[in-house]
């Protein structure tokens, strides 16, 4: 495959997009940002921002002329809409497409019929169909849960650092791969720099494998005077609640979180810890226990 030089990025102003943009720019790729509107202040001066209609194959095809690769970082609610972008990329002669997935267990067939995951599988199948006829190639980056999200000081993090509370999933020993937003953004650039070795496959990176009990033990060691309030819940129960509520028409964030936690944080049930990775290929350095301790100390305040 010829060298990838130019990249179009969709979803650049979202939660992960800015880190991918920085990774691509630092790696000296020519970057074009695809956006619904050129809102001032969203991007630094000099960034090539092109207004597109994400529902129009024609609009996207025109914007993708001369582009070697497309990276999508659109939000979870927009996963299904990537089909139009894929069709446009194929028509424009794009060589590589990286879809918005970036999850823990999104490639496990056990989850493919669940809400949220069904669209992920549909998009990956669509990409494979294009690859089968030689129209483009694809790569999925599986990076586990983003470290910043897992360590967020809220009820959705692995521990509620602010209130010294912990809801231990399945007892707290589920192993979970995690990668920081910055490292994942750099990994995207490395995928494109190693285009032949990453062609038409899932690439896995893991900056660290965590458990809730590991984090709790570090926190207690750092501040033994603090009293932590703990409770337990089964991820299978969370998943069932989420699926039942979703089926009843409740599509709220708490319901979606139950489905995500019941699968992506369920440890070995769905394979959320990556013991075999592509870290060496992409130059990903694993975090040490000392690194993790420093992060936890910051969270404890």
Automatic annotation (TrEMBL):
One of its GO terms (molecular function) is oxidoreductase activity. It comes from the Eukaryota. It holds the Pfam family NmrA. Keywords: NADP, Oxidoreductase. Transmembrane segments: none annotated. The keyword Cell cycle does not apply. Residues 5-221 form the NmrA-like domain. This is NmrA-like domain-containing protein. It comes from Exophiala bonariae. The lineage of its organism: Eukaryota, Fungi, Dikarya, Ascomycota, Pezizomycotina.
């Amino acid at each position: 495959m010829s060298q990838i030089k130019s990249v179009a990025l969709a979803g650049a102003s979202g939660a992960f997009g800015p880190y991918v943009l920085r990774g691509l720019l630092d790696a000296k790729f020519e970057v074009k940002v695809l956006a619904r509107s050129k809102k001032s202040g969203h991007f630094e001066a000099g960034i090539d921002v092109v207004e597109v209609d994400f529902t129009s194959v024609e609009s996207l095809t025109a914007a993708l002329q001369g582009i070697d690769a497309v990276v999508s970082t659109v939000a979870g609610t927009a996963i299904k809409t990537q089909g139009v972008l894929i069709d446009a990329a194929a028509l424009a002669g794009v060589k590589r497409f990286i879809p918005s997935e970036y999850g823990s267990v999104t490639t496990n067939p056990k989850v493919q019929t669940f809400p949220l995951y069904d669209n992920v599988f549909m998009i990956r199948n669509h990409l494979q169909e294009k690859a089968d006829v030689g129209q483009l190639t694809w790569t999925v980056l599986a990076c586990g849960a983003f470290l910043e999200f897992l360590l967020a000081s809220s009820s959705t993090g692995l521990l509620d650092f602010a209130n010294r509370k912990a809801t231990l999933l399945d007892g707290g020993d589920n192993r979970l791969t995690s990668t920081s937003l910055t490292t994942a953004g750099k990994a995207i650039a490395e995928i494109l720099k190693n285009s032949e070795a990453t062609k038409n496959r899932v690439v896995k990176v893991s900056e660290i494998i965590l458990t809730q009990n590991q984090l709790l033990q570090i926190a207690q060691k750092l501040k033994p005077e603090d009293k932590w309030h703990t409770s337990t819940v089964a991820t299978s129960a969370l998943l069932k609640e989420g699926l039942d509520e979703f089926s009843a028409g409740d599509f709220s964030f708490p319901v979606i979180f139950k489905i995500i936690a019941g699968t992506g944080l369920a440890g070995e049930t769905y394979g959320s810890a990556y013991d075999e990775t592509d870290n060496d290929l992409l130059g990903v350095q694993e975090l040490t226990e000392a690194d993790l301790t420093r992060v936890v100390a910051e969270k404890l305040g």
